[in-house]
Amino acid sequence: APALKIVVSSFQAGSAKLTRGAQLDINTFATFDNRPECHVVIQAYASVEGSDTENQRLSMQRAEAVAEALVALGISRERLSPPAFGATEEFGEDYSSNRRAVIFYR
Length: 106
Known about the structure:
4-stranded mixed β-sheet; single chain; alpha+beta; 2 helices
């Protein structure tokens, strides 16, 4: 089966609360999850607007919010690996594109 990778990109500034768009992205991953033998990696990020400490905390909260949503959709928590990266990996030039999480198989 081909790899599945979803970018969850609808977080508001300073928030780990899932927006409707983020929930739809997560639902898409859960709907097409056809590799139960694989680990699911959740990489979460923040923009550079806050301090390194704040961004690390926020990205961890975002990763956990995505993990909780996946579990609620029936994906086993034992399959989840939610590392958080703060603002260490910029994705785009505008801040909003860096408020994201990425879900994929390992």
